[in-house]
Write a sequence for this structure.
């Protein structure tokens, strides 16, 4: 019974992710064609062949179409599966690369385009900072649970700041260099963090 429930949940999550991706794809096309500020939720919904109310079930506001994704559950699940005999940084690095392997080339292109818009639209930068704060708290809780500490532990917070900084830096680098293999780039950057710097 549990296996069936997990399969149903898995199918539901995949369907949700597919719908989210479709909405984002149409939104990005409209943002390219008529600009972020000129595009309305109603236009996005019409392009995606959904109702505005369905749009708001997936995204609380227009800016969330650029800030929301379905990758956090992949990261959490992979992190929790990492063996106990490796360092927390190794576990995080493995989890990130595993989660990245589930992202298609088209989805990566969407990620890049979303990042470019976040960088260029001032109000999106502020919203992105709030979203980033939530992501950092999620990582802190993941790490704290693994090592048996509190999420506000100084070392946990330092770890979260380091890996988040690497991820942000590489996302911007990828936005400017779309020909690069993003998963490999991120893996290399995290490996440098793991090995220390010679700078």
């Amino acid at each position: 019974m549990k296996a069936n429930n997990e399969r149903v949940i898995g199918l539901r999550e995949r369907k949700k992710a597919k719908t989210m991706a479709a909405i984002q794809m149409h939104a990005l096309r409209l943002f390219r064609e008529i600009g972020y500020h000129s595009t309305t939720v109603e236009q996005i919904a019409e392009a995606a062949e959904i109702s505005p109310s369905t749009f708001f079930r997936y995204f609380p506001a227009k800016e969330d179409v650029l800030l929301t994704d379905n990758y956090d559950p992949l990261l959490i699940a992979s992190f929790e599966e990492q063996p106990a005999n490796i360092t927390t940084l190794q576990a995080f690095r493995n989890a990130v690369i595993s989660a990245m392997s589930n992202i298609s080339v088209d989805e990566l292109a969407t990620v890049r385009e979303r990042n470019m818009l976040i960088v260029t639209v001032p109000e999106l930068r502020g919203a992105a900072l709030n979203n980033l704060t939530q992501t950092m708290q999620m990582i802190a809780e993941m790490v704290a649970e693994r090592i048996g500490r509190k999420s506000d532990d100084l070392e946990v917070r330092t770890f979260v700041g380091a890996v988040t900084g690497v991820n942000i830096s590489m996302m911007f680098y990828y936005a400017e260099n779309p020909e690069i293999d993003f998963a490999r780039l991120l893996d290399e950057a995290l490996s440098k963090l793991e090995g220390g710097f010679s700078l």
